[in-house]
Amino acid sequence: MTTLSAEWQTWVRDNLARGCNETQLIASMAEAGIDPVAAGMAVLQAMSGTEASIASGPVTQAYTYSSPRMPQVGSVIQTSDRDVRVSMRMGQPVVALLDNVLSFDECDQLIDLARMKLQRSTIVDPTNGTHKVIADRGSSGTHFAVNENAFIASLDTRIAELMHWPVENGEGLQILNYQVGGEYKPHFDYFPPEQVGSGVHLAKGGQRVSTLILYLNDVERGGETIFPSIHLTVVPKRGSAIYFEYCNASGQIDPSTLHGGAPVLSGEKWIATKWMRQRKYG
Ligand SMILES: O=C(O)CCC(=O)C(=O)O
Ligand SMILES: [Fe+2]
Q1: Residue ranges of the Fe2OG dioxygenase domain (predicted)?
Q2: Was domain 76-277 assigned CATH 2.60.120.620?
Q3: How remote is the C-alpha of 91 from its chain's centroid?
Q4: Ligand 1-lining residues (CB < 6 angstroms)
Q5: Which atom of ligand 1 is nearest to the CA of 271?
Q6: What's the rounded Cα separation, in Å, for the pair 56 and 42?
Q7: Which residues partner with 218 through β-bridges?
Q8: Model confidence over 68-95: pLDDT tens digits?
Q9: What is the pTM of this model?
Q10: Nearest 5°: phi and psi at 47?
Q11: What is the ipTM of this complex?
């Protein structure tokens, strides 16, 4: 057990005093190499004003891994229309790397459909009247409602079977496109229960329980999905997907699933993300 340095304790207190969001603080600390569970404890202790020393060594997690949704055996998951190959699996946190989730043709179709929707979000340039894409944030996105059309419905069914969770508990498939420099800073996909703002999200469908990120293209350089607290890096591969879960049957959440999208260094990156909720969503 080591103690979080005085500098970090001061940093936490100062940022809380400035009104920074707790989750962002934990994510920044994790990015700097601090165990996110220890970072979370530091933030909680600072919020409650205690000066006790804070453990940043191995931390006993409250999260119970006893009944993962993703089976912990087998190399193939048979869905109603496709055999998906498990190429890597771990139990704590529950993570699985899946190959052959989408055909190349399905990846291209998703990109084309999303591109059409993305193109609709243009503004008219007041200087010359031409349509142009709204300011480049390094990433842009759109989503498809659950069962929006026959193609999306077939994917929603397959994805639900892979995630071992009902279609109706899923949020609509989200498509993200990152250009060079585009990234997604480390974050949790669940809604932090201690945050006031989470209430509105939790009211509909409850907590998020699991995520499937589908890679729609090969990225020339960069754009890996990174899990800083478990030191896992997933290289995007067209048609493959990374699955992870972070909310168990008791409603506990697993902070070791902190993850982000590393900056794209060359080329571009297209992904589709499915989030599952505890209950029926929508
Ligand atoms: O871009 C990535 O690899 C991560 C995406 C992600 O974290 C999300 O969609 O929730
Ligand atoms: Fe995420």
Answers
A1: 169-278
A2: yes
A3: 18
A4: 184, 189, 213, 225, 259, 261, 271, 273
A5: 1
A6: 9
A7: none
A8: 999 999 999 999 999 999 999 999 999 9
A9: 0.78
A10: -65, -35
A11: 0.99
